[in-house]
Amino acid sequence: MKALLVRLSSIGDVVHTLPALAALRRHGWEAGWVVEPPSQPLLADNPELAQVVVAPPARGFLLREAWSGLRSLRVRGYDAALDFQGLWKSVLWARLARARRVVGFAREWRREPASAVLVSERASLPAEAVHVIDKNLALLRPLGVEALGLRQFPLPASPEAVARVERGLGELGVTDVAVLNPGGGWSSKLWPPERFGDLARRLRGLGLRPLVSWGPGEDVLADRVVAASGGACVRSFPTGLLDLVELVRRARIVIAADTGPLHMACAVRTPVVALFGPTDPTRNGPFDPADEVVRRVPGCAPCYRRGCLVHPGVMDAIEVGEVAEAVERRLARSRRARAV
Hints:
Largest sheet: 6 strands, parallel
Number of strands: 12
Number of domains: 2
Order of helices and strands: EHEEHEHEEHHEHEHEHEHEHEH
Shape: globular
Strand order of the largest sheet: 3-2-1-4-5-6
Radius of gyration: 20 Å
């Protein structure tokens, strides 16, 4: 049996869908995936996937590329296409792949409710599926796959990424790394860079070496953190997605907001302190009970709108001292776990 996973973006959401891939493979399904270019490195060369089709992004959409991808999907002959994203564009890929079954959530659990009209089998979200990972796993139930609670993240191995990260860390001369990630897609979910800089100074007092990770277009933001730290932290070397996976895998702890790097760190079981505001950490935050969440809750919470009159500035209310205390608690749990 062959299943097509349709989760086009974003990076964190693709990470949260990986357990569904693991569950399908454990139940004997062959799997393919449709994804947009930014997240494609997390799936390419993944031995758990028989096919990865890159969907042209909305900006710069090329019909020729889309048609080529659809033809390759149709040739594969999927038995089921699963729309994890709940958008018109995602369900169109699922429908146009010509799978025998198109499975997606019912309209009340879709980001674009009207797009449910293109779903041939509409799944309901069970009450026990609180975290978004379990929501994704619940979509497998119409296929006879029960996997709620699974936290397995099949990521492709990359010896090249391992070598780049080891070389980069060696050139910087850093050990006992604490990764600070100040960037992300939604400005309303981010903690101010000056606070990260202040936190870096406190982390040095704990014997850690703060390293500021950054993505495309975030180099200036990373420099602001370094400047605010008074030299207590250093800017990381450039990292692609697989490099970032290997970087956070080697960290003692990761401090980040509700962004892709946070979810990568959770996937590889690195201790985290997660900074949350408008979005709900019970839905898409850390799933390890040992991890820490520091949050300010706006009146609109939980809110997943990029633009909102209520939640802008809420992250500014998170104090450096409480984040530093959360780091100390999380590190203490790690030490106790290693001692057992």
